[in-house]
Amino acid sequence: MHKYFDKTERELIVRFFSSIGFISTFLMSCIAFTNSEYFLFVTLVGSTLIYIWAFNIYKEVEKSANAILYNLYGLMLYLVVTGGAEGTGPIWIFIVSPVTYSIRGLKRGTFDIFIFLLAIMLGFYCADMFNIYEYKPAQFPYRIVFSFIIVALLTGFYEQSREKYSNKIIALSQRNERLATIDPLTELPNRRHAMNKLSEFKKEHAYKGIPFVLLLADVDNFKKINDKYGHNFGDEALIHLAKIFKKNIPQNAVASRWGGEEFLIAIPNVSVAEGVNVADKIHDSLKKAAVSLRTNTVNLTISIGVVQSEENRSIDLDIKHADQQLYKAKEQGKNRTCSA
């Protein structure tokens, strides 16, 4: 189904269409039984049961959607071939286009409707060829097919406009989400996003017993670097540092810009010793790779505080303990890691 629908919306759509299908076919089966059209009655009851089944498996969205559509197509083809009630059966095919596009989307929906159109034309041909039902006037099938094509084209045009608009909304939403969660300079997650991830890690610690380690890092003498080389160089230094973080932290870790020249790294399911090893790799990478901008070159150094989360301690307290270790690293001469 549509990529711009989330799982809950897709489930709601298939439940809605299966409910409408059930109600409609059930009522029509009652009318057919009242009119002593027993074969039509049995067919409609079978269709009703399929819609009930589709409703019950709504969480299996694709399977439910297929059941709804193919049941609808089969029923419509049956009504075309047999004429339905007094030759009015083909009128129902006009519901196919909106239902198909709503479930399938534009590309897959257009393909399905094209195949359905061929089947309907074949159905009218078979009805006439094998004397199953004689439509009067003789032009009736042609008018139905021509009208269906017009409705399908209009519905397809509407679906194209809707998809185009929806894609724009999705792109805008993703852009806004990125602006809200990503630091524009370093392209690292910002403080807001980091807090959300820490909340997730904290829940895993509480419910699954999976701890995490925090690395709180601060660039040494950053103000002096800015004053001496300018803010452009300072920005380049932060971008450089972000790349170093990405290169040296585990894949499941989160490195974020905490504020200014301060960064926070969260690594799930590791010990303090392993966190210190990551910090050592960062120190070593910074030592080997200097920041360069025009004629200026500087080897950045950072101080890092490392702590492990505690189940009964809040996120704020975890960060506070990391900050205490960072402060200790600064006091002991900078360019080092302290842990607890």
In summary, what is this structure?
This protein is an alpha+beta fold. It folds into 2 domains: 7-178, no CATH class; 191-339, 2-Layer Sandwich (Alpha-Beta Plaits), CATH 3.30.70.270.
Count of discrete alpha- or pi-helical segments spanning 4 or more residues: 11
Helix content: 55-70%
C-alpha-based Rg, rounded: 33 Å
Q: Termini, distance in Å?
A: 51 Å
User: Strand portion, in percent?
Assistant: 5-15%
Order of helices and strands: HHHHHHHEHHEEHEEEHE
Mean pLDDT: 93
What would you say this structure looks like, in words?
- By secondary structure, this protein is of the alpha+beta class.
- The protein folds into two domains: 7-178, no CATH class; 191-339, Reverse transcriptase/Diguanylate cyclase domain (Alpha-Beta Plaits).
- The protein is 65% helix and 11% strand.
- The chain is built from eleven helices and seven strands.
- The chain has a five-stranded mixed beta sheet with strand order 2-3-1-6-7, sandwiched between helices.
- A hairpin with a 2-residue loop joins strand 2 (254-259) and strand 3 (262-268).
- It is elongated.
- The protein starts with 6 loop residues before the first helix and ends with a strand.
